[in-house]
Amino acid sequence: MGDILFLAHRVPYPPDRGDKIRSFHLLKALAKLGRVHLAAFADDAADEGHAAALDPYVATRHVERRTRSQVAAGLAALRTGRPVSLALFESAGIAGFVAQTLRERPIETIFVFSGQMAQFVPADRGAARFVMDFVDVDSAKFAAYADTARQPMRRIHAREARLLGAYEIATAARADASLFVSEAEVALFRRHSGLGAEKVQALGNGVDLAFFDPAVAVERPNVPTPLIVFTGQMDYPPNMAAVIRFARESLPAIRATVPGATFAIVGRNPAPAVRALAALPGVIVTGAVADVRGWLAAAAVVVAPLDLARGIQNKVLEAMAMGRPVVASPAAFEGIEAVAGAELIVADAAGEAVAVIGLLTRPDAAARLGLAARARLVADYSWESRLAPLAGLVTAPRAVAV
């Protein structure tokens, strides 16, 4: 096939957080189908330094630091009537690279990762096919924020939800195919947009089963046990809310029955409210760790007590791949193809402490749950199987003339 132009809102390396995990494996898969030209933003100097690691997968690349602040983006968004999410990612450099690449390279497919990057797809793209990977319905996330926020943030989030939702629908209407990470996200977007299966479909996440393998020897932390583990980016509001609630509400009940239980919050950039949890009895806040597998391997139970979650929770898949018993909230379980009660436990806020206590006090049952979790992931969640439909998506003829 012809060349592929891949646009990503963040350098797709290293695959150590949700968006980078998906974008990196998509990039690897696309590189097997044709020559890839990458345009992406870097969050910081470290991100810029990682760009060279992608050279085995790309023919050309343009990576630039995203420097616009939230305040500047907010003012620009108000002035232009656009979503803040788009204003944050405006760039003459990216736009110029896209225009030059379309002009000079035989681009057959433009593959866009994350809705913010769709603004760089020109209205006149010639014969190039446009595949849009939204991953999640971001506008729904802002709507959920608005439901629980106080003024003025309630109004700000509601505005973002409204404008971004309209932009998502307009983008999907002009794309040849729009992808989401789960059937639940697909169903939600179809209801909002009125678009059907010929335009909107699911492309699920996988797991690197050779990396997240309980048989691989990893260094475990020297911490009190039994260990309850949560993993994630710890300046992300839904993760922050989850661990704060769990540490303050569920952990005391767990420790009343299992006094030595320790809750480890494992992930980079813990916000001040998260760091403060380390003052509570039985709580550890690690910050960034060299290898999350050691913490997962040491865990008696992995928890995902999120009240707000979009798409697929990689943290749940990785824990299951490591053969660990997982207690997930209904929101964190949504979109995961596993049998609740047999391959993981699903419990809401009212029931999560009882579920964790049950696993801590019945290690044989916990071990069986972990083995079943690993078996499910091996059977259904390799990246190769999950991304198998990608070839057909990027090589199909244009659906409509735009």
Automatic annotation (TrEMBL):
It holds the Pfam family Glyco_trans_1_4. Keywords: Transferase. InterPro entries: Sugar_tfrase_PEP-CTERM_Stp1. Gene3D superfamilies: Glycogen Phosphorylase B (3.40.50.2000). The keyword Transferase applies. One of its GO terms (molecular function) is glycosyltransferase activity. PANTHER family: GLYCOSYL TRANSFERASE GROUP 1 (PTHR12526:SF600), GLYCOSYLTRANSFERASE (PTHR12526). This is TIGR03087 family PEP-CTERM/XrtA system glycosyltransferase. It comes from Alterirhizorhabdus solaris.
